[in-house]
Structures are given as structure tokens and as C-alpha cells.
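INTERNAL AUDIT FORM
Audit reference: QA-55
Scope: verify that the stored structure record matches its stored sequence.
Auditor: D.O.
Record contents follow.
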Amino acid sequence: MTTFLHLQGRTAIEKYAKNLQICGSLSRLFSNSNIPYLQYRVSEQIFCKSFDADDLSRSDIAVDATKAELGLGIKTFGAKPRNHSFEKIAEFNADRNSYKYLSTEEKIRKISELRNHRIEFAKNGHNLGACQYHCIIRREGYFDLCEEEMPIISLDKIKNIKS
């Protein structure tokens, strides 16, 4: 997978890093923590302005930004001990009635279908060839960046479900 950052010019990446650094240093004004705080709406704005990406963050779809034919879901979260973290990727509150009384396996399949539909909706609606996550992980003293694919869930491969 070619990540978004690998396709960006040095100037844009430096601008992005500088903007993140500035926001991270400001968090010390209202917190004693050594882990910089970055509000998710701020991270989306910094990303779009730094990379001249289209901002879709208020659209409530699977991606927060687009550039060329790539959709990006921008996620900001703190690292937990041993680098494990359980973070919300998407909410399906409006669809809750369609899965709340299902068995565990049926619920997982239904939410997976909803997620797949949300990704396909974004891809079709914005002529995207691919989607990926751009993650900003807040660690003690710095931000760590990583990018991952945003794959469609293969429903036929869901198995060994434990409640």
C-alpha cells in the first residue's frame, strides 16, 4: 500500500509537522500531561490546510478528507500502555434499531454491512479509487503518524465470534 504521506512533497509534510507541533505545544497551557492533546476537528483542519485536501469532515461519511482520488479518514487517539488501544472508528447510532436486538453474530454482520455501505457511499459519491486511515497517535512528548488501508470487510470471512 502506498500511503498518502509518501506521495506528498517535502514542503507540505514540513508544514503539517510544524502545525501539529504548534498545536501540541499549546496543549501544555491547559494540561499538565506530557501527552499532547489534539482535538479531532483541529487535526482534520490541520491536515486539509497542510495538504490542500478537500475537507469533508462535517459530511458524516467514512472519510474526512479527499485529495485526488484518495479518501482519508483522519483519526486522533492516545496510545495506551503496551501500545494497545481500542478506539471508535465509526458510530452507527442512527441505525441502532436495525441491530440492537440481533444476536452477537448477526449484530457483527449487520454493523459490518453498514460500514461497508458507508465506505462505498463515500467512494461512489466522491469518485474515490481508494480510502485509508491517517492516524495521529498522541504519545508522551510527540505525535506518531501511521496510515492504514480502509478495507471493505469480507462478510464471508467473519468467524469464531465470541461474545
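Auditor finding: record pair retrieved intact. The chain has a mean pLDDT of 91.
Action required: none
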